[in-house]
Amino acid sequence: MAEDDKISLNNGCGDIFARNITTFSREQQKLIQHCRVTVIGCGGLGGYVIEELARTGVGSLTLCDPDTFSVTNINRQLNAKPASLGRNKARVAAKRIESLGTSTKVTVFPKRFQETGQSLFNRTEVVVDCVDTGADRLELGRICSAQSIPLVHGAVSGWYGQTGVQIGKTDLINKLYSHTEPAKSSTNSVIACTVALVASIQVAETCKILLGIPSPLKNNCQRYIPLIAEHRAELEEMFLDFFPELMQAVRETCHREDVLHWKI
To answer: Would the pLDDT of 10 be above 90?
Structure first.
């Protein structure tokens, strides 16, 4: 690769993103490096999303999370470890990204997104939903819809996961969570492999939006159930306790003998 090609891939950071080519063209890689993405929630889904966006070459990341790491996060949250316990999740994620050498600019809001005002959403091309509760998702969905900011949604529970993309002044998140109990907190079982899968699909959908690539998830939702049929019934029952309106949709759209159907 010619020296000027290396520099053009990352504004002076050499060939860090050379292996993104030819999945991305050089023009697409340059475009991504001038984009800003906002990630709301920097724990399970958010930790992987932030990491992958930076390694993809997204130029600016805005991170928002009021929470701190606890020992129960270590099983599935990328930045959770003994040294980070008690520290703010957004700040820890920012420090990790700064250490990668990708030149990604990071802005941190260590507070609830409802407390940030408009500054959190200024100049962002995409918002990635990695929050924990249906009530927060509903509010985030309303904010993004009102401002026509694309929103990439993700949710996980045990072996189950889902992603969706809300574009323009539409109400995908409201359709998914309008029956969620406002006060209900997220205490369901979550495992690392499901989190990593759903986060990676969120990153793929974010890149598609930034690059103008069509996606079947536009104003739509896809559910992922990597289970063999004989175990599905008991896990459906567990999932029903936390996401009853989504479980009904899963039963309507997934055949019992299916194991996993998804395509990035």
So the answer is: no
